[in-house]
């Protein structure tokens, strides 16, 4: 009567001695469960699908994707992290891949496509190994060993590049590599220059620290990409509060206020009963007096520009105008802070605290307008502290501007990484090919099952140059095998895929650099993810709750 | 029922809809429920154990290998199976590790005696046998365990490292074992050795970076709190600052919500405004006078105060989480002040180095070289949130194991070695007992073998073969022979291979598994009242939902 045979799938449905099913889990009818090898296989499939989506965006000849958000907004990009981030994937394993690229984005800011392609390739390879009956964890162990070999190899083939604030040649080249695959590649010399200048402006080369908060990237539709420029100061999407105020202020001394330009009010709930005409007049007098007092206090400090976090009414506006005090209202908190840092002024919370020392200084503050539109922006330049910069991206439409911003972000990150760690490996898949050779050599020395996994890792590394060649319209396998054999015979780890068709495979001569930390991070993250995916043998999904 | 009487009317004893099952059938059915649960868990055991991905109703995924966590997430409602969940939790709370083993053991005990139950052996005899066998096992552990020599700190340290790495071997961080076990042991060594309050080990998770980028801060670290404009102008680096911890809101705001000021004359208007400013300025000045350079508050610090501090080169952070603030106090000394007046020197803390640092995409405030550093913070990095959470769980297990080892210092060999040895000894002892108990105790001995067997199965080794090898080794007196998942032969001396576990983990696992098995065996009837029709006395649901809920429930009942 009793059956002891409990097959793994029956943990959800269990029957007792009399064949009556009984409930073990809450609402188990709605739970689904995948188990064992079947679960791993389905995960691999999901991950492969995701990797295939971004695969075509890899490299300088990679193509872009259009993403349409639920409310119809269009994004055109070939940035791996952006594509995956906007796809809103549902599958749990696919979500892991999305997080993987995001994590690469957060940490390094570049190489987000590469890491996903690598992880996808590793999983694809492990599928074949699973079919041979190798335990998933043995595969993961093998990958770990292979990854350690590859990372060590990267350390060996990396080269230190020299740069200083005067000699930016090498930084420029790195920025160009990163920009090469983006929509802005037509203007990539200019963009690279902007990225390098921006980073060097804010970087602390001694401490190898690049505070990103000080680089602001702003964009406006109109003009062309070529008009993108670096502003050594702060750019505000605001204009002077009164149309008759001067358009530019030289040698500006700024008052940075975080209180409204109006008579102060108690925060406590209050009530003022006005019972007579005199009292009303008194109140009006008081307010007027306050206004005059405020203007006077500002004037006394010698300021000639007022930046205010809050608004002020027409009366104040008029008074400011009359007293020749240009003013900007409704400036957001982060911008206030940026202005304060740039101009080395102090943020003043009330008029009583205003002193001369608290003013910020800027060489010139001017309003710029664009084309025929009446949009105006305020540029604060020649600030006391030169370490705050703004990059102002122009482009013919919003998608281009947004993509331009993303491209710049990647380039800035790439330059930043070099400032932090100036070791580079060569791009164009050369580092991958070289590591792949190293890993497969190391594999031969290992006696256990992991040998197979290490070979698989080596083949997975080839996925990157393969995708590069494929996207560049070359015959992938032919190109790869040729470069691979040349790497071995010439013992030159700098040979990669010639994506731009310049007839030169030496990436050092093509100046295609990647920061070492970025490559390392890619390998480590991808291996880590693959381990997590391979380790899952059971997926229990609750049904959607009825609501 | 008496003979000769006409059919008696049915006596309605219980409310309609009450579900009763009883007798042997019920007992067997309970056992199969427990086995089903154990079956789900079994693949997570051991260094080659797999993970589970569990998705809840809201679509959040969790990847874990921790027995207690899986059982919690499964949301088990079967009353007997719930017992297993409870013992896993108890094991988690008590020793923090070995949660999977305890469930497997309990289920295996039940499985072994199932045939006895079917043959009509009274559950009480079985329970008696189990209790006896368990006592025997515990005595044997006491006898077998090896006390670690704490007198040599260096050796003790390396022992702790080994314990930590054994507990990590089945987890995701397996490949980084040396790195993390060092971290865990250092974290424990930071704590007060008499107290070992692990709540003083803060764990912060930052997505991004590799696992290797995780770090241990011997002090306190927390994420930069939300700041107002002006915070960037504050200094971010201090050596030997005085630290003031407050529970005061430093913001310009209405002092009392329900107060209302009646302004009689316009001239008073300004006075009231000034008075309000005066209140906050007085607070700020009092703080400045204490000489504190770092001001932390549980409550918000407004933009006014932020800028005021910035002007005076003081660092401030508002809305610091209570736990973080408590750890700052523990590390830096001082106490949390709920007023700004009358703050004396002794109320302030200090630390060697205060710094704001960029870690991944976040900025962190870090207090290091604290004079009373009885606290530390683990900053975990990883590619995805699920990784980091799993790392946190794994580290928790390791921390608990190390903590236990520091406190008790007695270890046994892991990898199934201790179970095999116990099994051998108990079986030998069983032969000396006459009667049914002999069978029961032998069954108990056999059940213990489930641990090495499952480790073999999960690692893809031939369990029957290896188990026979192990039995042979143990019979010939090789008392620490256990499973070796890496080597070719599959068997090795785990004491020499440093696969160690604190004996307390095993003691607790065996005794609670026995308790749970006995509990399930002693139940022979389940009475389940129909679920009350009353919607739960929470917030009133809109009409319609109640009906829907009832319908859902009706369906659930129908299945039984």
From TrEMBL, chain A:
Q: Name one Pfam family in it.
A: Cpn60_TCP1
What is one cellular component GO term in this UniProt entry? chaperonin-containing T-complex
- Asked if the Swiss-Prot or TrEMBL record annotates the protein with the keyword ATP-binding, the reply is yes
Keyword rRNA processing carried by entry: no
**Domain of life, per the record?**
Eukaryota
Recorded hits in SUPFAM superfamilies, A to Z, give: GroEL apical domain-like (SSF52029), GroEL equatorial domain-like (SSF48592), GroEL-intermediate domain like (SSF54849)
Keywords tagged on the record: ATP-binding, Chaperone, Cytoplasm, Nucleotide-binding
Question: Could you give a GO molecular-function term held by this entry?
Answer: unfolded protein binding
Q: Which family does it belong to?
A: Belongs to the TCP-1 chaperonin family.
Q: Which NCBIfam families does the entry link to?
A: chap_CCT_epsi, thermosome_alpha, thermosome_beta
Q: How does it assemble?
A: Heterooligomeric complex of about 850 to 900 kDa that forms two stacked rings, 12 to 16 nm in diameter.
The protein's matches in PANTHER family, at most eight in alphabetical order, are given as: CHAPERONIN (PTHR11353)
Descriptive protein name? T-complex protein 1 subunit epsilon
The species this protein was found in: Crepidotus variabilis
UniProtKB/TrEMBL annotation, chain B:
Arranged from A to Z, the UniProt key words for this protein are: ATP-binding, Chaperone, Cytoplasm, Nucleotide-binding
Which InterPro entries does the record cross-reference, listed alphabetically? Chap_CCT_eta (IPR012720), Chaperone_TCP-1 (IPR017998), Chaperonin_TCP-1_CS (IPR002194), Cpn60/GroEL/TCP-1 (IPR002423), GroEL-like_apical_dom_sf (IPR027409), GROEL-like_equatorial_sf (IPR027413), TCP-1-like_intermed_sf (IPR027410), TCP-1_chaperonin (IPR053374)
Where does this one sit in the cell? Cytoplasm
Mainly localized where? cytoplasm
Region: Disordered, residue numbers: 529-560
An example Gene Ontology CC term for this record = chaperonin-containing T-complex
Task: Kindly give the Gene3D superfamilies that the UniProt entry links to this protein.
Answer: GroEL, GroEL-like equatorial domain, TCP-1-like chaperonin intermediate domain
The annotated regions of Basic residues compositional bias extend over 550-560
Which superkingdom is the protein from? Eukaryota
Give GO terms: molecular function aspect only: ATP binding; ATP hydrolysis activity; ATP-dependent protein folding chaperone; unfolded protein binding
| PROSITE patterns (UniProt xref) | TCP1_2 (PS00751), TCP1_3 (PS00995)
PANTHER family associated with the record: CHAPERONIN
Which function does this protein serve?
A: Molecular chaperone; assists the folding of proteins upon ATP hydrolysis. Known to play a role, in vitro, in the folding of actin and tubulin.
- Subunit record text: Heterooligomeric complex that forms two stacked rings.
Give the similarity note. Belongs to the TCP-1 chaperonin family.
Protein name, entry field: T-complex protein 1 subunit eta
Q: Which organism is this entry from?
A: Crepidotus variabilis
């Amino acid at each position: 009567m009793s059956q002891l045979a409990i097959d793994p799938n029956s943990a959800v449905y269990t029957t007792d001695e009399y064949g009556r099913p009984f409930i073990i889990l809450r609402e188990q009818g709605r739970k689904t469960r995948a188990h064992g090898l079947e679960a791993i296989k389905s995960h691999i499939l999901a991950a492969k699908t995701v990797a295939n989506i971004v695969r075509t965006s890899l490299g300088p000849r990679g193509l872009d994707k259009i993403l349409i958000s639920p409310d119809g907004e269009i994004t055109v990009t070939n940035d791996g992290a952006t594509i995956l981030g906007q796809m809103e994937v549902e599958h749990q394993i696919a979500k892991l891949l999305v997080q993987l690229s995001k994590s690469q984005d957060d940490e390094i800011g570049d190489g987000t496509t590469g890491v996903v392609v690598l992880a996808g390739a590793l999983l694809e390879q492990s599928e074949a190994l699973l079919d041979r009956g190798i335990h998933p964890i043995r595969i993961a162990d093998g990958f770990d060993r292979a990854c350690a070999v590859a990372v060590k190899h990267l350390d060996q083939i990396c080269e230190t590049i020299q740069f200083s604030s005067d000699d930016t040649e090498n930084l420029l080249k790195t920025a160009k590599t990163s920009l090469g695959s983006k929509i802005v590649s037509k203007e990539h010399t200019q963009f690279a220059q902007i990225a390098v200048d921006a980073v060097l402006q804010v970087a602390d080369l001694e401490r190898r620290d690049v505070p990103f908060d000080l680089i602001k990237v702003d964009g406006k539709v109109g003009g062309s990409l070529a008009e993108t420029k670096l502003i050594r100061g702060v750019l505000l999407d605001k204009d002077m509060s009164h149309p008759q105020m001067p358009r530019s202020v030289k040698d500006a001394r700024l008052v940075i206020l975080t209180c409204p330009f109006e008579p102060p009010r108690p925060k406590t709930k209050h009530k003022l009963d006005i019972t007579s005409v005199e009292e009303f007049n008194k109140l009006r007098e008081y307010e007027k007096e306050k206004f005059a007092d405020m203007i006077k206090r500002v004037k006394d400090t010698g300021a000639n520009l007022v930046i205010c976090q809050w608004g002020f009414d027409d009366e104040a506006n008029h008074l400011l105008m009359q007293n020749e005090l240009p003013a900007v209202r409704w400036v957001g908190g982060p911008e206030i802070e940026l202005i304060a840092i740039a101009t080395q002024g102090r943020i003043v919370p009330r008029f009583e605290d205003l002193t001369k020392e608290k003013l910020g200084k800027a060489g010139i503050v001017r309003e710029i307008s664009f084309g025929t539109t009446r949009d105006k922006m305020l540029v604060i330049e020649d600030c006391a502290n030169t370490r705050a910069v703004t990059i102002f991206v122009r482009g013919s439409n919003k998608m281009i501007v947004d993509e331009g911003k993303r491209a710049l972000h990647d380039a800035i990150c790439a330059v930043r990484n070099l400032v932090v760690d100036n070791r580079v490996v060569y791009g164009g898949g050369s580092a991958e090919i070289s590591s792949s050779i190293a890993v497969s050599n190391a594999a031969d020395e290992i006696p256990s099952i992991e040998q197979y996994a290490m070979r698989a890792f080596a083949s997975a590394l080839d996925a990157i140059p393969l995708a590069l060649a494929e996207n560049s319209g070359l015959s992938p396998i032919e190109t790869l095998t040729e470069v691979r054999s040349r790497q071995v015979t010439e013992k030159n780890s700098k040979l990669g895929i010639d994506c731009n068709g310049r007839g030169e495979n030496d990436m050092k001569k093509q100046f295609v650099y990647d920061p070492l930390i970025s490559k390392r991070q890619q390998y480590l993250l991808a291996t880590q993810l693959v381990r997590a995916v391979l380790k899952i043998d059971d997926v229990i999904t609750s049904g959607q709750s009825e609501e | 029922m008496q003979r000769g009487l006409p059919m008696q009317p049915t006596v309605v004893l219980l409310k309609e809809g009450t579900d009763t099952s009883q007798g042997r059938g019920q007992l067997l059915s309970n056992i199969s429920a427990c086995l089903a649960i154990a079956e789900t868990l079994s693949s997570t055991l051991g260094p080659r154990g797999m993970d589970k991905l569990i998705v809840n109703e809201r679509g959040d995924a969790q990847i874990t290998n921790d027995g207690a966590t899986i059982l919690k997430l499964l949301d088990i409602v079967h009353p007997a199976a719930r017992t297993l969940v409870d013992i896993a939790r108890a094991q988690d709370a008590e020793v923090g590790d070995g949660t999977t083993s305890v469930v497997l053991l309990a289920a295996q005990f039940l499985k072994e005696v199932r045939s006895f139950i079917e043959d009509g052996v009274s559950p009480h005899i079985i329970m008696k046998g189990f209790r006896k066998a368990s006592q025997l096992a515990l005595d044997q552990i006491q006898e077998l365990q090896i006390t670690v020599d704490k007198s040599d700190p260096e050796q003790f340290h390396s022992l702790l490292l080994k314990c930590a790495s054994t507990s990590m071997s089945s987890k995701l961080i397996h490949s980084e074992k040396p790195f993390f076990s060092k971290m865990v042991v250092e974290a424990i060594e930071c704590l007060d050795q008499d107290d070992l309050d692990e709540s003083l080990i803060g764990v912060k998770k930052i997505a991004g970076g590799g696992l290797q980028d995780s770090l241990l801060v011997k002090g306190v670290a927390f994420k930069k709190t939300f700041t107002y404009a002006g915070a960037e102008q504050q200094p971010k680096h201090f050596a030997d600052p005085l630290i003031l911890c407050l529970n005061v809101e430093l913001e310009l705001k209405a002092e009392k919500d329900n107060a209302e000021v009646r302004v009689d004359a316009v001239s008073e208007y300004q006075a009231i405004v000034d008075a309000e400013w005066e209140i906050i300025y007085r607070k700020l000045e009092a703080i400045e006078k204490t000489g504190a350079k770092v001001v932390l508050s549980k409550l918000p610090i407004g933009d006014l105060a932020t800028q005021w501090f910035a002007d005076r080169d003081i660092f401030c952070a508002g809305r610091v989480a209570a736990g973080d603030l408590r750890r700052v106090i523990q590390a830096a000394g001082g106490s949390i002040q709920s007023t700004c007046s009358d703050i004396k020197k002794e109320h302030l803390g200090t630390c060697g180095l205060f710094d704001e640092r960029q870690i991944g995409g976040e900025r962190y405030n870090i207090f290091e070289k604290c004079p009373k550093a009885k606290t530390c913070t683990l900053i975990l990095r990883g590619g995805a949130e699920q990784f980091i959470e799993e790392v946190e769980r794994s580290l928790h297990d390791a921390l608990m194991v190390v903590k236990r080892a520091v406190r008790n210092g007695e270890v046994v060999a892991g990898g199934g070695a201790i179970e095999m040895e116990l099994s051998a000894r108990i079986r030998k002892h069983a032969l000396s007992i006459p009667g049914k108990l002999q069978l029961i105790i032998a069954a108990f001995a056999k059940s213990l073998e489930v641990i090495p067997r499952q480790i073999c199965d999960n690692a893809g080794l031939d369990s029957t073969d290896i188990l026979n090898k192990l039995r042979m080794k143990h019979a010939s007196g090789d008392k620490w022979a256990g499973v070796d998942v890496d080597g070719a032969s599959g068997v090795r001396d785990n004491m020499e291979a440093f696969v160690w576990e604190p004996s307390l983990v095993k003691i607790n696992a065996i005794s609670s598994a026995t308790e749970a098995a006995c509990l399930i065996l002693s139940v022979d009837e389940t009475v389940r009242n129909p679920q009350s029709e009353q919607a739960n006395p929470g917030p009133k649901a809109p009409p319609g939902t109640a009906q829907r809920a009832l319908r859902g429930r009706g369906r659930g009942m129908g299945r039984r």
